[in-house]
Amino acid sequence: MSRAKTSLAALAVVLSACATSPDPAEQVEQDYAQAVEAAMQPATPEEVAAANRADPLTKANFWAKEHAKDPDNLDKALSFASALRGIGSDERAIEVLSQVLVVHPGDPDLLIALGKALSTQNDIVASARAFEQATRTAPDRAEGWAALGTSLDKLDRHEDAQRAYTQALLLEPTRTSTLTNYGLSLALSGNLIAAEEKLRLAAAQPDADVRVTENLALILGLQGKYDEMAEISSRHAPQGVVEQNAKLLQDMIQPVRSWEALEAEAPAAKRSAPPVEKTKPTPATPPVATNAEDSAPEASSTGLRLRRSGE
Predict the structure, then answer these.
(1) What is the sign, positive or negative, of the torsion defined by CA atoms of 196, 200, 203, 205?
(2) Residue 158, Cα to own-chain centre: how many angstroms?
(3) Rg value, the chain, Cα
(4) Entry's PROSITE patterns (predicted)?
(5) What is the pLDDT of residue 272?
(6) Sign of dihedral through CA atoms 22, 26, 32, 36?
């Protein structure tokens, strides 16, 4: 081969090599695009399961990233809001749910989750409004009716609340939390006999907890059924506490003692003329707690609390 031909062949090899070599700037852009695409891929089922088993803060951070990848995704928004509530960030949860509700208007899961977050923030009117809307869009969901009843009770609209509980129980007759809250609503309305009936049904359910039996025991005591109250309470409390509770309740609801009875017990030297008007009997009312999920305290030494079940 001549020298000229050799030179041309070498030049062709050099040019070919230059043509196939990637441009450094273009390679950086490609790598960046691939990294972004990889980062935007949804988490695998294994990653989701691991995050849901993690501590609340780790779980919230995980779902924050997943929500950022697809802000309009309904399931991710619900998971993110739930994780936010798990770390006490209800305000941020309300913000997330409200934004996604624009994309999915009327979704009952969103409305129920929003109502619960609003209730925790003590915005009961807005909470009831969210639950009411959920019952309109999904009238076959017992959860929505039951949650609406709880909010209405907090607004002292007990008759409306009881209608909501009735509707919930038509859909799920053995829902323990609904039976319990219905019973408490009836008690707040002064109907202790009907309250006892609902609480007995609640206590008979397999998932009934100590709050249900405590409520039933208290309603029985308010009706003067102290032996039965003590029998039910003794399943979860020491006998000394049970006896103390029964005695306290008797003292609270018995009529105020008359002047004659007090005078008969007083030393003769300390007796004085009775007042013109006698004290009228005034039964005392035991303290009533609000929703146990929000603020009901643990039982004190008296143990006398009405404890609402969380919906």
Answers:
(1) negative
(2) 20
(3) 33
(4) PROKAR_LIPOPROTEIN, TPR
(5) 46
(6) negative
The conformation of residue 271, written as its DSSP 8-state character, comes to -
Amino acid at 198: K
Distances (CA, A) of 222 to 69, 112, 275, 307: 56, 34, 31, 15
Q: Is the dihedral of CA 250, 252, 258, 260 positive or negative?
A: positive
Give the closest residue to 166 by CA, choosing from 155, 177, 178: 178
Chain-centroid distance, C-alpha 160? 21
Give the per-residue pLDDT at 227: 87
The Cα–Cα gap between 191 and 186 comes to: 5
Contacts of 108 (CB under 8 A, 6+ apart): 134, 137, 138, 141, 144
Structure confidence at residue 232 (pLDDT): 86
Reported pTM: 0.70
Q: What is the pLDDT of residues 200-211, one digit of tens each?
A: 999 999 999 988
Amino acid at 259: W
- The rounded distance, in Å, linking the Cα atoms of 111 and 107 is 6
Q: 129: part of which helix (H) or strand (E)?
A: helix 124-137
Low-confidence ranges of the chain (pLDDT < 70): 1-23, 25-40, 236-307, 311
pLDDT at 7 (0 to 100): 57
Predicted confidence at residue 309, as pLDDT, reads 72
Summarize the chain as % helix, strand, coil (round to 5).
Answer: 65, 0, 30
Burial of 48 (0-12, 13-18, 19+ CB in 10 A): middle
Diameter over CA atoms, the chain: 146
Q: Which amino acid is at 222?
A: L
pLDDT score, position 168 = 98
- DSSP helix/strand/coil, 105: coil
Q: Which of 35, 111, 103 is nearest to 67 (CA)?
A: 103
Domain boundaries, the chain: 191-254+285-311
CA atoms within 13 A on the CB side of 301: 2
Tokens encoding 131: 């639950």
